[in-house]
């Protein structure tokens, strides 16, 4: 299920002025609660996914913190880079 409320889809601008987009998904694939943050920049040259499972799941306030960190910390973001297909909502539902 896509998490569409609580401003989790609001773009975040990093220190260089680049805009980052996010979509948060959560559900029970393989009977384990999973949260995923999909992210990409405006020109889609950097795309990726951050995932937490079960006991690592995050409260919405912590999800916002991870989103901010993904946007503003290139080293952290680099760990989660992976190609994405667009539109994300259709390919990763």
The percent range for helix content is: 10-25%
* Helix-strand sequence: EEEEEHHH
* Main beta-sheet annotation: 5 strands, antiparallel
User: Mind telling me the C-alpha Rg?
Assistant: 13 Å
N- and C-termini, Cα separation: 7 Å
Secondary structural class: alpha+beta
Mean pLDDT, all residues: 92
Shape: globular
Number of domain modules: 1
Oligomeric state of the chains present here:
single chain
Describe the structure.
This protein is α+β, with helices and mostly antiparallel strands. The protein has one domain. Helices cover 24% and strands 30% of the residues. It is built from 3 helices and 5 strands; from the N terminus they run E-E-E-E-E-H-H-H. It has helices at 60-72, 74-78, 88-91; strands at 2-3, 12-13, 19-27, 34-41, 47-53. Strands 1, 2, 3, 4 and 5 form a 5-stranded antiparallel β-sheet that branches. Strand 2 (12-13) and strand 3 form a beta hairpin. The longest helix has 13 residues, at 60-72. The model has no long low-confidence stretch (mean pLDDT 92).
């Amino acid at each position: 299920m896509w998490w569409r409320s609580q401003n989790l889809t609001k773009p975040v601008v990093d220190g260089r002025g680049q805009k980052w987009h996010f979509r948060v998904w959560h559900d029970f694939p393989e009977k384990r609660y999973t949260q995923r943050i999909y992210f990409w920049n405006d020109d889609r040259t950097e795309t990726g996914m951050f995932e937490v499972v079960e006991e690592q799941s995050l409260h919405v306030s912590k999800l916002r913190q991870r989103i901010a960190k993904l946007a503003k910390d290139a080293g952290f973001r680099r760990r989660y880079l992976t190609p994405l297909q667009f539109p994300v909502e259709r390919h990763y539902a």
